[in-house]
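Lecture 7 notes: from sequence to structure.

We start with a single chain of 212 residues. Read the sequence below before looking at the structure.
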Amino acid sequence: MKLGTQESESLADALAYESLFWSRGCSVAGVDEAGRGPLAGPVIAAAVVLPEGVQVERAGDSKKLSRTLREELYAEILTKASSVGIGSGSVQEIDKHNILNATTLAMNRALTQLSEEPGHVVVDGLPVKKLEWEHEAVVGGDGLVHSIGCASIVAKVTRDRLMTRLALRYPGYNWEKNAGYGTASHRAAIKKLGLTPHHRITFGGLQYELDV
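Now the structure, written as tokens:
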């Protein structure tokens, strides 16, 4: 199908960052994470490599999308991407090493899971000191770099699904709705039911809350 001028310009704008590298024969892996701030559950990172010229329409910052749309785009990304890698940093690693280092572990694992070695790696936010790949960092990248936006969606949907499964094993915390974030109902459940093995005991003063 031949694209009209307006459609071609829209595609070029969305893929402007990647196109700089594709023109040199270099693939791009966009990397983002989900779950740095919750009181429970792992941090999840995703790395997405798109084929040259491929766009997933409406894909961008996952926080600005409805859950239903994220699920639809997640399926489309997995179909269209040439490679997708997913990694996690466990609750135990978060409590032992801190969230920043656990996030770095998750990103390294996601990149390792790619089926192809990326020519260029770009991450959302600030440079990641201990990332094992040379990379560029783009603040607000999930809304500016298409492959990062796709990674944002993959990470978010993967984590939300995990928290929904965990909610079945640990009812009462509303993880299927709050994804482990410190909502009022979640904190009230912690006071009533106590902590689970999936709570980050170093987060949000959880031990203090239980002691008072």
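The chain has ten helices and five strands. Keep this in mind for problem set 3.
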